[in-house]
Records
---
Amino acid sequence: MGLLSSDSDVPPNPWFSWSYVTDHVDLLRTALGDHLYLTIVPVFFALIIAFPLALAARRWRRLEGPLLGVAGAMYAIPSLALFAWLWPTFGLERKTVAIGLTLYAILIILRNIIVGLDGVPDDVRDAARAMGFRSGRMLWRVELPLALPAIMAGLRLATVSTIGLVTVGAVFGNGGFGDLILGGFQDNFFHAEIMTGVVACILLAVVAETILYGVEWVLTPWTRRARS
């Protein structure tokens, strides 16, 4: 007669395990480095691409609709489908995930730059022209500083959304903390590994948004004076 297994025979599988964290410091450090790379690089290149596109859309208004439409269409593509489309060309590498995440971040940053520049009051522009400001000087000395809160809001949103989307790259072995989440599911639904990846993503998003808020606070002292 066979013996029935009791609950004591089942290995513990807690959702939260500090011992798992302490036993896998090197793994978490590597995952953090990958996650930071796959967040900073796409957001940076998305800003580099979106900025001249926003200036073009502002100068030639007929371009605004098509540019936002194309960026919106790219954003609407499911992430797995986009990565699968990029894979035959770029291979299963980190740059493949980075390229896909860059395409997603462009829409958010592009739209916020346009909104920020459009929000500059006309009387401010008129006053700058009366002081002899030409278009280039007006952009850098007047319009961009006043548009900076909207631009920073776009950067924060793009950064946080990118941190979440990085985890999808785990399907291709390049997902930062997403590798832990996927690995936990593959390893007999190992709760501690899954939860560690999830909590790490959340903490990274909170830290990144806090840092960007601090950068905006430093770069826009006039907004603090206006609120006070």
---
Amino acid sequence: MIGPSSSHTGAVVRIGRTARGLFGEQAEKVIITFYNSFSRTYEGHGSDRAILAGLLDMAPDDERIRDSHQHAKDAGLEYHFKVVFNASSLHPNAIRIEQFKGERKQNVLGISRGGGLISIKEIDGFTCSFSAQVPTIIFTAKDVHGSIAFITDIIAHEDCNIATMTVDRSGKYDMAKLVLELDSEVRPLTLEYLRSLDWIENVTYLKPTT
């Protein structure tokens, strides 16, 4: 990785790269908020360069990280940094990434757990918890009866084991977010089938980030 810190630099690249994967493309504009410890150290530890690098889909060992401010400008990515010094409800090393492109927008909260490890804790207001270290599927779907059982049965027919599952919903029979971390990859055909179902609004498949 490009240093100086595994938690404040390396992990931050991974948070940015995961957020880009969730958005599905490069945004036109991003607003990045550093909380607590990050708010005090983000410039000295290179977290500002790291998060931009991740949003540009660079890996933690990419030499271009050092010049990511310029690379972001060259790519047409408008970026703004904000700080919140005392957010007692959040992890000491938390980052919020708001991405915008045309009418699309997305809000992701990630944390650095130390040693380069991360966890994504929130997507568009839905609570979740995944590491981006294994294949991960994120479903946005209507909260219909039997939906989770149906999806997990499809995954089981792939001979794929579910390592972790988190579910959150905006209300009963409203929209829900289901996140599955898997022990192996899923075929594109299976993902396309799941995307074709009328009660599933979106399916995002993330391969492990390095």
